[in-house]
Amino acid sequence: MKFKGYRRSDGSVGVRNHVVILPGCICSAGAARKIAAAVEGTTYLYNPNGCAQNSEDTALTLEILSGMIANGNVYGALIVGLGCEIIQEETYLNAIRQKTDKPVYYISIQKRRRPCKDRSQRGTISREAACRC
User: Fold this and answer.
1) N vs C: which end of the chain shows fewer Cβ within 10 Å?
2) What's the whole-model pTM score?
3) How many CA atoms lie within 13 A of 2 on its CB side?
4) Spatial CA neighbour of 68 closest among 112, 100, 90
5) How does DSSP classify residue 25?
6) CA gap 80, 72 in Å, rounded
7) Integer CA distances (angstroms), 118 to 7, 29, 48, in order
8) How far apart are CA 72 and CA 102, in angstroms?
9) What percent of the chain stands above pLDDT 70?
């Protein structure tokens, strides 16, 4: 019998090949949703957290989100952060790298200054990830 799925380089397997667009916090959810809607082949995952969490809640949120990205049905991810949330870029990437070697990108709205208004850049990273599937 032939396996009709995806074998990941980290050893996991999946029957789906999602490119996840994940907001780094509730405040960047709108931008992340717009990116996912504009780029075919991506899947938006909602994150209602990121700000005003205590350290235990932050650790749990990071564990859950990094686990979702490490799931075998996920090819890779784009995390859209606002820039001022508790879980910053390096923290996200380090937690994910401990679980998987999948391609994961991070963009910060505050660093890019209005990424959703610049249509030429809005989907570049997510399109690149979606095309690699």
Assistant:
1) N
2) 0.80
3) 1
4) 100
5) S
6) 21
7) 35, 17, 25
8) 10
9) 84
